[in-house]
Design brief:
By secondary structure, this protein is α/β, with parallel strands linked by helices. It has one domain: NagB/RpiA/CoA transferase-like (Rossmann fold), CATH 3.40.50.10420. The protein is about 35% helix and about 20% strand. It is built from six helices and twelve strands. Strands 6-3-2-1-7-10-12 form a seven-stranded mixed sheet. The protein has a three-stranded mixed sheet with strand order 9-8-11, with helices on one face. A two-stranded antiparallel sheet has the order 4-5.
């Protein structure tokens, strides 16, 4: 009986996540590019003011995808400040994600799984080399819980990071909800920056 209850509960959480994911992805896709750029700039300025960012030598970013908070300008600004940039690399066949050094965004990138840009070469960054992780999300809640795209790559990656590495979610105001359904595999971020 308990096993059946847990399966029903898990499928309910899964369904709730799907509903939220679909609604917010629609909002992301329908957002005007001008508004997306302006809101992304506000979030960039908030990131630049964070002490953890100012102190970071190496920052793991993500390459914005399908209406997400724009990260290219953030990456460029971080490089101008002398920071090393990491990007995630997904190996779909092995169901894993790891971080790689991205030295030249024009030359180092290729389309990875799901059409997301990632590095061609795999200069792997260990956790000891990373000072901050910028995390994408479809939605975040007021407790910094995160709803991703559903592959679980970031949750598996984040569960192993040391507690001293700050994790920062980036989200537009409409991506913040009161409460997200969660299960034991979900890993919250430490901070969420919004416009």
């Amino acid at each position: 009986m308990l096993k059946l209850f847990l399966e029903v509960e898990r499928s309910s959480v899964f369904r709730q996540k799907q509903i939220i994911r679909e609604r917010i992805i629609t909002l992301l896709r329908n957002q005007e590019e001008e508004k997306r750029s302006a809101k992304s700039l506000v979030i960039l300025n908030r990131l630049l003011k964070m002490q953890e960012f100012q102190n970071a030598v190496t920052v793991l970013f993500y390459y914005a995808f399908l209406g997400e908070v724009e990260t290219i300008e953030m990456i460029k600004r971080a490089q101008q400040l002398g920071k090393r940039i990491g990007l995630p690399k997904i190996i779909k066949e092995k169901n894993i994600m790891y971080s790689t050094l991205a030295e030249d965004l024009n030359a180092d990138l290729e389309d990875g799984p799901y059409g997301i840009k990632q590095t061609k070469e795999s200069k792997v960054l260990s956790f000891k080399d990373i000072d901050m992780i910028i995390v994408p999300g479809i939605a975040f809640d007021k407790n910094n819980n995160r709803l991703g795209r559903g592959g679980g790559y970031y949750d598996r990656f984040l569960k192993d990071i040391p507690a001293n590495i700050p994790t920062v979610g980036l989200a537009f105001d409409f991506q913040i909800v009161d409460n997200l359904p969660t299960d034991k595999h979900d890993v919250p971020v430490r901070h969420v920056l919004t416009n």
